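Journal club prep, notes for RB
We'll compare a predicted complex against what the paper describes. Inputs for the heme C case:
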Amino acid sequence: MKPTARIITRTLLTPLLVGLLAAASLAGCAALTGNIVKVQSLRGTDVQAPDTETVSPKLIGDREPVKRNFDQQPPLIPHEVEDYKITKTANKCLQCHSWMDAEEDGPTKVSQTHFKDRSSTDDANLSTRRWFCVQCHIPQTDAKPLVENSYKSAKAKE
Ligand code: HEC
Ligand code: HEC
């Protein structure tokens, strides 16, 4: 670049660019303030308004296993779990679902995948990553859905 061209770039183009950028951001701000989105809760009320509906869903009692909606879905729990405690040292779920303690023709045993450690190596013991079952397996309640849901299972879409 010739020295004169460099001077022109510095003295003329730079302020022009800065000016253009400033104008663009001002226009952006104006568009934003003119178009404030009001944040609402899923029930359609103001997020800061106190909850008017008291929801006390009941756990659904024992029933048949629930159909899975997609491959790799952690199956939903089809029974109550209120009395099934999981602590650091004891896990009531395993009394019925482990390979070691459960009866042979008893409830479905924990998946073989639950014995793999994080490097996918099989272990004889349940992986600690799978100790807290209800992190992934969820008991069901009779709660009404908060919003309409048109979800269809992967199978139903086929
Ligand atoms: C007293 C025995 C018992 C205990 C304790 C128990 N379950 Fe179950 N569980 C069952 C029975 C029976 C079924 C239904 C039959 C089946 O799926 O094998 C079942 C089904 C399930 C299923 C569905 C399996 C599928 O393939 O759809 C999951 C997930 C499950 N239980 C998780 C748990 C978790 C998590 C706990 C602890 C919070 C737990 N269970 C404690 C007896 C038990
Ligand atoms: C990190 C998530 C996670 C945790 C924690 C977990 N599971 Fe699972 N579980 C899954 C997933 C995902 C599947 C389905 C895919 C598979 O088999 O791995 C599954 C499958 C199962 C099945 C069905 C097995 C079959 O043969 O169809 C049972 C029963 C089960 N889990 C019980 C348990 C119990 C009991 C615990 C606690 C000791 C537990 N799981 C902890 C994610 C988890």
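Talking point for the session: Residues 1-38 form one domain.
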